[in-house]
Amino acid sequence: MSRLVIVANRVPDPKEAGPTAGGLAVALKDALANRDSMYFGWSGKTAPQTGTEAALHRHGTTTYATIDLGHDDYKHFYQGFSNAALWPVLHYRLGIARFDRRDFAGYQRTNAAFAAALAPLLKPDDTIWIHDFHLFLMAAELRALGCKQRIGFFLHVPFPPRSVFNGLPHAEKLLEAMEAIDAIGMQTEDDSENLRAALIAVGKGDVALRVGAFAIGIDASGFAKLAAQRAEAKEVKRLRDSLAGRSLAIGIDRLDYTKGLPQRIAGFGAMLERFPRHRGKITFLQVAPVSRGDVAMYRALRRELDEGVGRINGQMAEPDWAPIRYITRAVPRPTLAGFMRMARIGLVTPLRDGMNLVAKEYVAAQDPADPGVLVLSRFAGAAVELDGALIVNPLDPDDIAEALDAAMDMPADERLDRWNRNWAKVKAVTASVWCRRFLSALEGTKDVADAGQAEAQPARRRKPRAKRAA
């Protein structure tokens, strides 16, 4: 079996890639453990200039190869084109994207630098798997250096309709660079169709045939075990005791404008206003660690959330009850797993998300004998699979309010039925399955579309059953 070379903007600390870690490190854990591999990318450190030679260290079967980013490249590649332009456009937010030609120059320069540092480390029969929007150009840069290895690319975030993507300066250059890629993975068929249409429009119909949908999953059994183990942990008991018998709704997100946090807070407030019988019977815990706190837009979002939470708590709290608890610092993943297990409602309402693994983690965390209810945005990729969720429009606070009311009143047999449907999907499409499906397409054992999730169909919003008479 050839060596697998994973390329990502940021290389994780291998000591943190165990069962308590999250994100790409967990998703790729099995692939890295079961074959000789290399993990290449940014170290997370900055320096006067971007590194030209990677620092190498071995951990298990994986060689970790990292370079530092130069201060100028960090500003223009990372903060600039990647996060101020690409991130909002890919999430359908063209109106708030910021464009600067110096940023795109930094993006090109850094993709080239990554390729130049990786190329000398490659073996002829390596399989290269590049991840996410920071590195759209890297495969083309590797080809320009004479690299002939199989190269795959996976986009973890959404891809918008062509009319939106074309608003991005240099959009055509990014699409043309995909000619260098052998297999392109997306989270959903909708995202795949959008990318295919964009490629066809620039005369890359042959490249469009290399695009397929591969829904990413989690270590379902591992997370379920972690949640069960942490259910009686000290910090989880403290939370349970503080609720004094009330139900818990939980939201877990990075503080980002794509996550629909102001709308979610408004929806919870609307539920308390429209269905006052729930006042004093439910507490909403929103965990939203601050990200990019040096960016004005993110500071404004935090102020908006502070004001929204304060307004609802000020209007509706009682001496012994506050409707919303709001945490903007990081909480350890094992603790969050325990919190999810005890939560009657999981509230996952992004305005747009490639997949959203928190939705799948909430399902995995539940007690099979008494599961909670997942309230899920129709615009999360996970909604394609998790048809046992209450699917909502995250832009409509009243829709969120009605779903919360239904979840609070939902009988045990319906909760169990919905959870069983979701759990079957979460168990079937794990992180390991995702890796196998994509790598089988990349390494030539299956067609790209056939290796993906061709069988997945969009979830329909299933209304809760009529409430039983008292």
TrEMBL record:
In residue numbers, the region (Disordered) covers 449-470
Compositional bias segments (type: Basic residues): 459-470
Q: Which family does it belong to?
A: Belongs to the glycosyltransferase 20 family.
Report the protein name in the record. Answer: Trehalose-6-phosphate synthase
Q: Which Pfam families match?
A: Glyco_transf_20
